[in-house]
Amino acid sequence: MRNRTCALAVATALALAGCGLTGPARQVPDQAPVQWQAPLPHGGSTAALSDWWRGQGDPLLAQLVEAAQQVSPTVAAARSRIGQARAERTAAGAALVPAVDGVATSTRTSQQQASVPSNTTSQVYAQASWELDLFGANRASRDAAQARLESAQAGWHDARVSVAAETANEYYGLRACEQLLAVAQQDARSRADTARLTELTSQAGFQAPATAAQARASAAEANSRAIAQRAQCDVNVKALVALTAIDEPQLRSLLGGAATGADALAALSPAQGIALAELPAQTLAQRPDVFTAEREVAAASFEVAGARAQRFPRLTLAGAIGRGRVHTGGANVTANTWNIGPVQMTLPIFDAGTRRANVAAAQERYEAAVSSYQGTVRQAVREVEEALVNLQGTDERAGDARTALEGYRSAFVATEERYKNGMASLLELEDARRTRLAAENAMVSLQRERSAAWIALYRAAGGGWTRPAQQ
User: Fold this and answer.
1) pLDDT at 134 over 90
2) What's the chain look like in SS3?
């Protein structure tokens, strides 16, 4: 009779499972545009994103990026999240297999008012329990944990890319600052020479004292500007120290071999560019943050399935096998023992709407994950488009900026010669100097802007991450 009841319970659960199994929620629609609206970068050499830093002809840049990634708390936290997700995946998967425990018991029984002698019963046995995952609740938990593990792994790469981009921006920012400092110091020396010359001519009676005072004021202003620029460069160095954990004296020693002149301007921008796929979907498939958001949608979908499965019956099996000994009246009796059962089915009847509410909450989390994923895709498209626009803009402006710089340099040299020969006023000289200084700074800033655009494109293109093969 008992076996017939167990068989009936199992058959009933399997019948319900056949009509009640729930799967993942709907698929997320593709949000990638058909094509890029901004022009793709062209010309020049390109390098694979994963080795992009090493292809720039600047060993120090690669060294700084690697040092920053090794000590970054962001990367360390992402690595910890992988470990946590892996542990949660293991725990969720363990629910699909029987649990076995070892049990040892000993019981002493004495009945003083009866003729039955005292006895000691001892047992050692293995006890197993197993919940049959008829409706997929445990499988849904395992699959959600697996999705979050894959999300965490992609998040670790995304953290490394972010740190690399931040370090490169600080490095190129420092190099640009050094060039601006060189321009400021050159301008300060030029103004100091003009002030000295003007002072001499004023003392000889060829220049008004007010003109000499104006020249001194101009020299002081230029010197103050150079001091402020040097302080900014020191701040940039300290930012790199914080990012890389390299001692400041050692870092300054490494930075000491900075290029000068035209080579320095070239060093402000990466030597090799990035080849971008024509189809946006291909580029977005290389973005770890997009993949992370996609896996969060999958995890939320499995959680919806798991919450729905909790509304159906649960079937559990238990059993034990072992060996026992009974000691009574000076004699020992030893025997093997085993049992199967109970076979237990739990039928949800009334929970005041708890399970229904859990399903609704899981569904809302899924909708939120879908919305977040779609926002991540739109942001990824925006970042690529903006980087492309900035690259195109700096490329188109480079020729004009170079022409302007050469023209203003020539105009300043000519005006300075005229001033020394008494054929131009100090006002003309200062105006020519101001326009030349602005052109020098604009050229450096343009190169720095271009490097920032390349780094932004590196970041927007995924930094060399590849989607797992099973996906």
Assistant:
1) no
2) CHHHHHHHHHHHHHHHHHHHCCCCCCCCCCCCCCCCCCCCCCCCCECCHHHCHHHHCCHHHHHHHHHHHHHCHHHHHHHHHHHHHHHHHHHHHHCCCCEEEEEEEEEEECCCCCCCCCEEEEEEEEEEEEEECCCCHHHHHHHHHHHHHHHHHHHHHHHHHHHHHHHHHHHHHHHHHHHHHHHHHHHHHHHHHHHHHHHHHHHCCCCCHHHHHHHHHHHHHHHHHHHHHHHHHHHHHHHHHHHHCCCHHHHHHHHCCCCCHHHHHHHCCCCCECCCCCCHHHHHCCCHHHHHHHHHHHHHHHHHHHHHHCCCCEEEEEEEEEEEEEEECCEEEEEEEEEECCCEEECCCCCCCHHHHHHHHHHHHHHHHHHHHHHHHHHHHHHHHHHHHHHHHHHHHHHHHHHHHHHHHHHHHHHHHHHHCCCCCHHHHHHHHHHHHHHHHHHHHHHHHHHHHHHHHHHHCCCCCCCCCCC
